[in-house]
Amino acid sequence: RFRAATLVGMTHLEAKIADEQLSDSQIRIWQLTENLHREDLTGYEKWLGCAELMSMNPSWQLADLAAHLCLDASMITRLLSPSKTIPAWQEALAAGTVGVSDCYCASKLPEKEQAGLLAMKLSGASRDDIEAAGRKARNSNASAVRTNKIKCQLSSGVSIVASGSALSL
Q: Which of 13, 22, 91, 107 is the most buried (most CB within 10 A)?
């Protein structure tokens, strides 16, 4: 590493020194952690790195990975969102035709509805456009709770009853 840095004219090189012999797994965790903080990584590379760190630490929750990488938990959710998309989305991310935030929009939908969103994105739609389309699809799939009577107890002790045909919440 030192020789490579010298060849490209670097005058400073960060080095980490361990107090003990590290296992291959521990070394890989250090490598992934350092690499995930580089600015030149693609969204695809960040996703793969985060996914590998999670698989190497099976007891971790998303908050643990966020703390380890010193990132916000919501960023970890976004970085791992391609794992919840169909392979076509993952391939588009690898090719650089979509971004992680696009995958995040798609990951909120069932797999059978993700292909339509991808086609929309690949035809030139913005991330905001696919987010809106995804929100619309989620709302149309949501089933409203319907009832004939709703009783609400107010803190004052008064009860209000609303009744009618197919009330929805």
A: 107
